[in-house]
Amino acid sequence: MSTPTVPVYFEESWAILSSIGLTNVLFGLMVIGITSLSPVSLVPIVVSVAGSLANGLCYYAFYADYPKTGTVIAAAIADVSWLIQEAGLSFYSYLILTRVLQNRSRVIFMCLFWTIMAVLLTIRIFILASRAKDILDGSTNRQNTIDHLHVGYFSSIALVECISAFFLLRKFASARRTSIEASSTSGLFSYLMRSTEIRLATLAVIGFSRAITYSFQTTAQSATTTASQLDRFVYTLECMFPVMLFIDILASKLVVTNHIHESSSQSRSRNLNNASSRKQNNGLSGISMYPISHVETRVDAQGGMSSSQERIFQSTVSQAGTHNSNEESQEFQQKDGVITKTVEFDFHDSAA
């Protein structure tokens, strides 16, 4: 009896999905180089590594012909890696919420989040144990149980993302209302709300779709029916989801940078206006702000002087609006320490 031919690795979709995960890791390193290393930027990288490992081991466990011990170990590691990949996507919202939520809201969210995560872990352990028994027995008797466990597993993933989105949208909506009243940062919070809505829609669709399609799975990790092929397509979208997170990280950095630039520009503008106002209140320094073409300064000297001692000065106001005291026309005569002549200044403003 001839042994079945082992399919070539890169002829299977699992090889492509594993390669997508490796590519996402490279994208993540580029994003970190552009932005900075942070827990949020590590989330898509970690889930991509886990997905790449799980998909590669899936071929080893369910397609290749290896001893049962190695196959069971590979299947177990693959299940753990899938847990990290699929449940880990929700930690992107979790890391944001733990920073913005406070007091009661924070406690409620964390209790709900970790409760669902505990449920996910429990379900995945049952899936792992059931698969291991099937591999050791060389049968698929527990496949129906595994399918039903996956329904609860994927539904829980969609539920935890819906809960995270609820708290995020409520927080951002409140901050947006405040920012509109203060006429600042409204664009930033509008963007954060839109990105959260997109993440919610995508992950919720993936979670509920896989909960439906996986219930029709008849063989372990094989796309042999229309429903299982649709499930493989939805899982491919899930493998591509880290790319959306990378875009969100870069777009958030761009929006925040633009907001900081606008705020600093407005601050500099206010400082210049304040300096200009102080300058206007300082004597004649602000006279150039007004439509006066020139100022006629008439000096009347009283004290027996001839009319030729009366001078008319027409001086154009300078840009700075300052006058040098040494250039002012002031005639006086001092005798025995007493000023014997006074000078009267009359300022006449003539229109341009």
TrEMBL record:
The chain crosses the membrane at residues 14-35, 42-62, 74-95, 107-129, 149-169. The lineage of its organism: Eukaryota, Fungi, Dikarya, Ascomycota, Pezizomycotina. The keyword Transmembrane helix applies. This is Integral membrane protein. Keywords: Membrane, Transmembrane, Transmembrane helix. Residues 304-324 have a biased composition (Polar residues). Residues 265-278 have a biased composition (Low complexity). The keyword Membrane applies. Residues 265-287, 301-335 are annotated as: Disordered.
